[in-house]
Design goal:
The structure is a single chain. This protein is mainly α. Helix content is 77%, strand content 1%. The chain contains 20 helices and three strands. Strands 1-2-3 form a three-stranded antiparallel β-sheet. Strand 2 and strand 3 form a beta hairpin. Residues 107-116 and 593-666 have low confidence and may be disordered. It binds zinc ion (2 copies). InterPro entries: HRD1_E3_ubiq-ligases, TRC8_N_dom, Znf_RING, Znf_RING-CH, Znf_RING/FYVE/PHD.
C-alpha cells in the first residue's frame, strides 16, 4: 500500500472535521428540548391527573433527549435517519391527503395565508409538481431506511397512486379510498421496518449497557463522565447551543424593534442597541443550561486569550494553557454561588457584571502566573535583547494598570459592599504581586549587569518573595473573613460554604504550609552550610581555586566540605536546596540522621554536653577545622567527629544565632 501523502491526509482531516461538525449540530437539538422543558411552566390549577401526566411527559422528554445527546456517532446518525424517514412519510401522506381531497383544481386562485402564491394554479403543472414532490419524498424515505430491493419501487408507486387517481379524475370516494390505502401501506411498511430493526435495537442497547457497566466498574463514574464529555464534544455542543439561541433571540428582538420603530434601515439607535444587548445577556443566563453554555463560550475566549498572551510573551509552558479551563469553571462556580439564573432579570444583569469583575481579576491573576516565570527566566538567563523583554514588561505593566483602573472606576460608581471589597482586595493583591515580580526581576538584572558574584542577591530575592507571600497570605485570611461575613449576613448558600472550605484549604492552609516548608528548607540549608568550616583571607590565596559550581574565584570566603571540595557558601546553599550530596563527588555533605544517632552514644568521642557553653564549642570547632585544613590527610573518623560537633553546635546555638551566623558569613 502506498504511503498516505499530505494532500490525502488533509482531505481525510477535513472529512473528519465535517463529520464532527455534523455530529455536534445533530446533538444540539437535544439541548434545546431540555432547555425548553426546563423553561416551560405548568399551571397547578389543573387536575391531579393532568399534572401527573405533564410531569411524566417532561421527565420522558428529558430522559429521551439525554439519551440521544450521549449516543455514539453511529447510533446518532441512525436515530436521525429513521426519524427523518418517518417525518418524510408523514409529510407525504399529508400532502396526498390535502391534494386529493381539499384542493379545488379548477378554482381560480389558491393563495396561501401570507398572500404568496405557493402552489401552481393550473391543473397539469400542479400534477407535475405533486409527482415531483412525492417522488422526492419517496426516494428520501427509501434511501434513509435503506430499502434496496424491488420493494422500494413499489413503495414509490404506492405514494404516486393517489396522484394518479387525481390525474385521471376519479370520483371523490374512490380518491379517498386510494389515499387511505396508500397511507395504510406506508404505515405498515414503516412498522415492518421498525420490527425488523427491533432486534438490532435490543442487542445494541444491551451491548451499550454492558459496556457502560463494565467501564463503570473498571474506571469509576468520574472517568466515565469525563470520557463521555470528551466523546460527544459537550463544550462544543454547549457553545453552538448558546450562540444559536442568542442569535435567534437577537433576530427576533431586532424584528420587533424595527416593527416598533417602523423603520426599514438596518441600523438601530445606540440606546436601542444597548437595550438589546442587555436583554440578550439577561436571557443568556436564565437557566443552569444557558449558564453552562455561556461558560463554554467564555472558555473559548479565555483559551484564545491565553494562547495569544503566551505567544506574545514567548512562553512555551504547557501548564499555562489551562486558562480555557480555569476561567469557565470559575465563572460557573460564581454563577452557582450567587444563584445567578434564579434571580429576577434586572438583578441578574447586575449580579452578572459583578461576577464578571471578579472573573476578570482572577484571569489577571492567572496571566500574572504566566508572565512571572518568563520574567524570571529572562532576567536569570541574561538575555539582553529588548524585543524579548518588552512584551513581558508590557504585560506586567498592564497587569498593574488594569486593576488600578478597575478599582478606581468601581469605587467611583459603587458604595462599599462585600463584593467591592473582594474585587479591591484582589486588585491590590495583584498589584503587589506584580511589584514583587518586577523587583526580583530588577535585582537579577542588576546582578547580570555588574557581572560580579553578588552573594547577598539570594537573600534579597528571598526577602522580597517572602514579603510578597506573607502579604498574599494575609489577603487570603482577609478574603476568608469577607466570605464569612457575606455568608452570615448576605447569602449563605451551601455552594458558598464549600467554596469557603476550598479557599481555606488552598489559599490559606496550603500557602502557609508551603511557605513554612520553604522557610525550613532554607533554614536547614543554612544550618548545613554553617556546619562546614570556612576559609578566609590569606588561606584563600593559598588554595588558588575556583568554585566548582559557578567557576568564579573565591573573593571573600569559601566553604570546605568533608570530602575536601571548595565552594562559595551561596552556591553550595542553592545546591543544598535540591540535594544533600557534594556536587563534585556525590558524598553526603551533611548527614542529619548520623547526628541524631550518634548524639546518644558519642560521649566518649568528645561529645559536648547540651548545657555546655556554646562559645567554647564554636572555638573548639574552629580549631578543629584549622587542624583539618592544615593536615589534608585527616581520617574519616576525624571527619565524623568534626561533622558531628558542628551539628551539635548548630543544634544548641538555635535559629537566632544561625541567622546571625548567616548574616555574618555571607
Ligand atoms: Zn560559586
Ligand atoms: Zn566532594
Amino acid at each position: 500500500m502506498a504511503a498516505v501523502g499530505p494532500p490525502q491526509q488533509q482531505v481525510r482531516m477535513a472529512h473528519q472535521q465535517v463529520w464532527a461538525a455534523l455530529e455536534v449540530a445533530l446533538r444540539v437539538p437535544c439541548l434545546y428540548i431540555i432547555d425548553a422543558i426546563f423553561n416551560s411552566y405548568y399551571d397547578s390549577s389543573q387536575s391531579r391527573f393532568c399534572i401527573g401526566l405533564q410531569i411524566f411527559l417532561r421527565l420522558l422528554g428529558i430522559f429521551v433527549s439525554s439519551i440521544v445527546l450521549i449516543l455514539s456517532q453511529r447510533s446518532l446518525f441512525k436515530f436521525y435517519m429513521y426519524s427523518s424517514a418517518f417525518l418524510l412519510a408523514a409529510t407525504s401522506v399529508l400532502v396526498n391527503y390535502y391534494a386529493s381531497l381539499h384542493i379545488d383544481f379548477y378554482g381560480a386562485y389558491n393563495t396561501s395565508a401570507f398572500g404568496i402564491e405557493l402552489l401552481p394554479r393550473k391543473g397539469p403543472s400542479l400534477w407535475m409538481a405533486l409527482i415531483v414532490l412525492q417522488l422526492t419524498l419517496g426516494i428520501g424515505y427509501i434511501t434513509l431506511l435503506q430499502i434496496h430491493s424491488i420493494y422500494s419501487q413499489l413503495i414509490i408507486l404506492d405514494l404516486l397512486v393517489p396522484v394518479i387517481g387525481l390525474i385521471t379524475e376519479l370520483p371523490l370516494h374512490i380518491r379517498e379510498t386510494l389515499v387511505f390505502t396508500s397511507s395504510l401501506i406506508l404505515t405498515l411498511n414503516t412498522v415492518l421496518v421498525l420490527v425488523v430493526k427491533l432486534k438490532w435495537f435490543y442487542y445494541s442497547t444491551r451491548y451499550v449497557y454492558l459496556l457502560v457497566r463494565h467501564m463503570y466498574r473498571i474506571y469509576g463514574l468520574q472517568l466515565l463522565m469525563e470520557d463521555t464529555w470528551k466523546r460527544i464534544r459537550f463544550p462544543d455542543i454547549l457553545r453552538v447551543f448558546w450562540l444559536t439561541r442568542i442569535t435567534a433571540q437577537a433576530t427576533v428582538l431586532m424584528y420587533i424593534l424595527r416593527m416598533a420603530n417602523e423603520t426599514d434601515s438596518f441600523f438601530i439607535s445606540w440606546d436601542d442597541f444597548w437595550d438589546l444587548v442587555c436583554n440578550l445577556i439577561i436571557s443568556g443566563c436564565d437557566s443552569t443550561l444557558t449558564v453552562l453554555g455561556m461558560s463554554a463560550v467564555i472558555s473559548s475566549i479565555a483559551h484564545y486569550l491565553g494562547l495569544g498572551i503566551l505567544a506574545f510573551i514567548g512562553s512555551t509552558e504547557e501548564d499555562d494553557r489551562r486558562l480555557g479551563f480555569v476561567a469557565p469553571v470559575l465563572f460557573f462556580i460564581l454563577a452557582l454561588q450567587t444563584g445567578l439564573s434564579g434571580l429576577r432579570p434586572e438583578e441578574r444583569l447586575i449580579r452578572l457584571s459583578r461576577n464578571m469583575c471578579l472573573l476578570l481579576t482572577a484571569v489577571l491573576h492567572f496571566i500574572h502566573g504566566m508572565t512571572d516565570p518568563v520574567l524570571m527566566s529572562l532576567s536569570a538567563s541574561h538575555v539582553s535583547s529588548f524585543r524579548r523583554h518588552f512584551p513581558v514588561l508590557f504585560v506586567s505593566a498592564c497587569l498593574f494598570i488594569l486593576p488600578v483602573l478597575l478599582s478606581y472606576v468601581l469605587w467611583h460608581h459603587y458604595a462599599l459592599n462585600t463584593w467591592l471589597f473582594a474585587v479591591t482586595a484582589f486588585c491590590v493583591e495583584l498589584c503587589l504581586k506584580v511589584i514583587v515580580s518586577l523587583t526580583v526581576y530588577t535585582l537579577f538584572m542588576i546582578d547580570g549587569y555588574y557581572n560580579v558574584l553578588w552573594e547577598k542577591l539570594d537573600d534579597y530575592v528571598y526577602y522580597v518573595r517572602s514579603t510578597g507571600n506573607i502579604i498574599e497570605f494575609i489577603f487570603g485570611v482577609v478574603m476568608f473573613g469577607n466570605g464569612a461575613y457575606t455568608m452570615m449576613f448576605e447569602s449563605g448558600s451551601k455552594i458558598r460554604a464549600c467554596m469557603m472550605c476550598l479557599h481555606a484549604y488552598f489559599n490559606i492552609y496550603l500557602q502557609a504550609k508551603n511557605g513554612w516548608k520553604t522557610f525550613m528548607n532554607r533554614r536547614t540549608a543554612v544550618k548545613k552550610i554553617n556546619s562546614l568550616p570556612e576559609i578566609k583571607g590569606s588561606r584563600l590565596q593559598e588554595i588558588d581555586d575556583v568554585c566548582a559550581i559557578c567557576y568564579h574565584e573565591f573573593t571573600t570566603s569559601a566553604r570546605i566540605t568533608p570530602c575536601n571540595h571548595y565552594f562559595h557558601a551561596l552556591c553550595l546553599r542553592k545546591w543544598l536546596y535540591i540535594q544533600d550530596t557534594c556536587p563534585m563527588c556525590h558524598q553526603k555533605v551533611y548527614i542529619e540522621d548520623d547526628i541524631k544517632d550518634n548524639s546518644n552514644v558519642s560521649n566518649n568521642n568528645g561529645f559536648i554536653a547540651p548545657n555546655e557553653n556554646p562559645e567554647e564549642a564554636i572555638r573548639e570547632a574552629a580549631a578543629e577545622s584549622d587542624r583539618e585544613l592544615n593536615e589534608d590527610d585527616s581520617t574519616d573518623c576525624d571527619d565524623d567527629v568534626q561533622r558531628e560537633r558542628n551539628g551539635v553546635i548548630q543544634q544548641h546555638t538555635g535559629p537566632a544565632a544561625e541567622e546571625f551566623i548567616n548574616d555574618d558569613t555571607d
